[in-house]
Structures are given as structure tokens and as C-alpha cells.
Write a structure and sequence with these properties.
Blueprint lengths: L26 H11 L2 H9 L6 H11 L7 E5 L5 H9 L4 E6 L9 E5 L5 H9 L5 E6 L9 H22 E12 L5 H10 E7 L10 E9 L2
Parallel strand pairs: 1-2, 1-4, 2-3, 4-5
Antiparallel strand pairs: 5-7, 6-7
Helix pairs in contact: 3-4, 6-7
Length: about 230
């Protein structure tokens, strides 16, 4: 699994692909589509059969932090469309893999999918029924539906991070790990204090596959105190 920079993915710079027609598209949708067409990680994901370019973020996180070990139990929050769960299934290390999302997700080999809200008690109990030996790693690539209002969207994603953090603290085995997508900016102090109180190692990481213009970062918490 590669930790190459976007330029290295193809061995050379690709020629820019232009939209054949912009008819019926807004300016923002044209920009998004143009970016997708010329994104080397989008092209690589398509070539390698991954459901989304987000797969490479988890690959790069695991290359650096070695979170996914043989025989462990991993929970993927906000899993749909399945990019991260797909990476986990391809490691093939006899893990127990549980994916949760409000949205439907196409099946993946060796992954148990639960549709629902992880904060709902019934869903929570259903999850626990599949993890009799405890949970070693909780992953969250969750992001809320954006409003276009930067401050509101930032508050929403930090709220999700906090909920995922409390969930991880509730379910993790001692020495377990937690990964969550966050955004650079304010509103992180409470979450970081909570993580540092409950984990021995806490750090931030921006995977090479994260777009340079994106403010997303990942918080990596390791060695849960239990």
C-alpha cells in the first residue's frame, strides 16, 4: 500500500482533463467535477477498485501509526459508502470488522454492517452483540451534511467528533485506539482535553491524500487508559 504523494501516483504529471460541457451545471458543481476528474487519488481509487479516494487516507494513517493489527476488533463509524471498511477488509488479518452508518452501504466481505445512529441505545446494544471480545479500534471519518456556512459546519463536525470520542471511551479495551476526522480551527479544546485525559498518546495528522486546500485533519489517540 502506497504512501506516495499525488505527483508520484502515476509517475508523471497527467494532462488536465476538461469538462466536455458545462450545460445545466452551477459554477460550484463545475468546479467540483473538474477537481474530481483531475484528482490523482480519484483516478487511483477507480483503478484499484476502491469505493472512494478516502481509502488512501486510512492507508496513510495506518502506515504511520500501525493501528490495525491482526485479530483485532475495529468499528468504523460513518462508514458509507465503505471506503475505510473496504481497506480494513483488504488487510485480511482475521479482524472483526463492524461498520455503522445512517445511510445504506453495499455489502463488503468480512464486514458486518449496522444501519443506524451509533448514539441510539438499540443500535449501541446491537453493536455490542457483535463485539463480545471488546473493541480495539474506533475509526470515524464522519462529516455532517454541509450548510455552506463555515462556522455552522465547523460546529457540526466538532460535535460529531465529540460524540465519537465519548463512544470510543465507552467501548474501547485498554490500550485501544481512536481516529477521527476534525477541522483546523477553534472548538477543539474540549475534545483534546478529553482525549489527553483518557489516552496516553494524542496527535494530529494530515494524510498526503487530503487535499491541500482542505482544513481537515485527523486526531489520532492511542493507548487508551481504560
Amino acid at each position: 500500500m502506497s504512501n506516495k504523494t499525488p505527483k508520484d501516483l502515476s509517475g508523471h504529471r497527467k494532462q488536465s482533463i476538461k469538462l466536455r460541457t458545462a450545460r445545466g451545471r452551477t459554477n460550484s458543481s463545475q468546479r467540483w467535477l473538474q477537481r474530481q476528474l483531475n484528482d490523482p487519488y480519484v483516478q487511483k481509487a477507480k483503478a484499484e477498485g476502491y469505493r472512494s479516494r478516502a481509502a488512501y487516507k486510512l492507508i496513510e494513517i495506518n502506515d504511520k501509526y500501525k493501528l490495525i493489527q491482526p485479530g483485532t476488533t475495529v468499528v468504523d463509524l460513518g462508514a458509507a459508502p465503505g471506503g475505510w471498511s473496504q481497506v480494513l477488509s483488504r488487510y485480511g488479518n482475521n479482524q472483526t470488522l463492524i461498520a455503522l452508518d445512517l445511510l445504506e452501504m453495499d455489502p463488503l466481505e468480512d464486514v458486518t454492517f449496522i444501519q443506524g445512529d451509533f448514539t441510539d441505545e438499540d443500535i449501541y446494544q446491537k453493536l455490542l452483540s457483535h463485539t463480545k471480545n471488546g473493541i480495539d479500534t474506533v475509526l470515524s471519518d464522519m462529516a455532517p451534511v454541509t450548510t455552506g456556512h463555515k462556522k455552522t459546519d465547523h460546529i457540526r463536525i466538532m460535535d460529531l467528533v465529540e460524540q465519537a470520542c465519548y463512544f470510543a471511551i465507552e467501548v474501547l479495551k485498554p490500550d485501544g485506539s481512536f481516529v477521527a476526522k476534525t477541522l483546523q480551527g477553534g472548538g477543539q479544546d474540549d475534545v483534546m482535553l478529553l482525549l489527553k485525559k483518557n489516552f496516553r498518546k494524542v496527535s494530529h495528522f494530515k494524510p498526503p491524500s487530503s487535499r491541500k486546500e482542505s482544513s481537515e485533519m485527523y486526531v489520532i489517540a492511542q493507548e487508551f487508559k481504560g
